[in-house]
Design goal:
Layout: E1 12-14, E2 23-30, E3 41-48, E4 57-59, H1 65-71, E5 77-80, E6 87-96, E7 100-107, H2 112-123, E8 128-140, E9 147-160, E10 172-173, H3 178-196
Parallel strand pairs: 4-9, 5-9
Antiparallel strand pairs: 1-2, 2-8, 3-7, 3-10, 5-6, 6-7, 8-9
């Protein structure tokens, strides 16, 4: 995650060319990849509730609800490293549960960067998710300095290299093992040959 209040980890981007475009903030959450399918489908948590990140922010339960009602998963972009000119796939579903923002997505393997991303995910070289959002409502605790993010406009979720919320992980990345499918095909072919005799 990248936060506004944390020096070197601060990142703001103005999306669009309109002078009134508000800065986009980003938060990163780590991924743990249990496997990948050949189609590049995966799921996990893009954000966790009530966990203070390394930038001193905590996302409140319900922070994404209004935004998701307005745009749904189709209105949230999947990007590579928050680069707005590098979409790499689509979010199939985004929903809040008791733990955080659960995301299911699919890399578009017709896109070169998505194929590279898939290879990096398989090797474990990339292991983070990061949300890009605009803050609608936040409350800063004067004593602790922690900023509680109460309502956010979710703009994008990126696959990134360095997560700032290490506890948020991808729980399942669908795997299609070619060896398993070959073995099943061989077994099926043997059964057909036996039946033909």
């Amino acid at each position: 995650m990248k936060a506004l209040d944390s020096g070197a980890t601060t990142r703001r981007k103005a999306y669009g060319t309109h002078a009134a475009a508000r800065a986009l903030e980003t938060k990163r959450a780590g991924l743990r990849l249990d496997g990948l399918d050949r189609a590049g489908a995966f799921e996990g948590y893009a954000s966790l509730f009530d966990v203070v990140d390394l930038g001193g922010d905590v996302v409140a339960p319900g922070a994404f609800a209004a935004s998701l009602r307005r745009t749904g998963a189709a209105g949230v972009r999947m990007l590579w490293q928050h680069e707005q000119d590098t979409p790499i796939g689509v979010w199939l579903s985004l929903e809040e549960d008791a733990r955080g923002l659960k995301a299911r997505g699919r890399l578009n393997l017709a896109v070169g960067r998505a194929r590279e991303t898939l290879a990096l995910l398989r090797d474990g070289a990339v292991d983070g998710l990061s949300i890009g959002y605009r803050t609608r409502k936040a409350i800063k605790d004067a004593r602790s300095g922690v900023r509680r993010l109460v309502e956010l406009d979710l703009v994008e979720i990126s696959i990134v290299t360095f997560p700032m919320l290490p506890q948020a992980r991808i729980s399942a990345v669908k795997r299609c093992d070619v060896g398993v499918w070959r073995a099943r095909a061989d077994d099926f072919q043997k059964r057909l040959l036996r039946l033909a005799r």
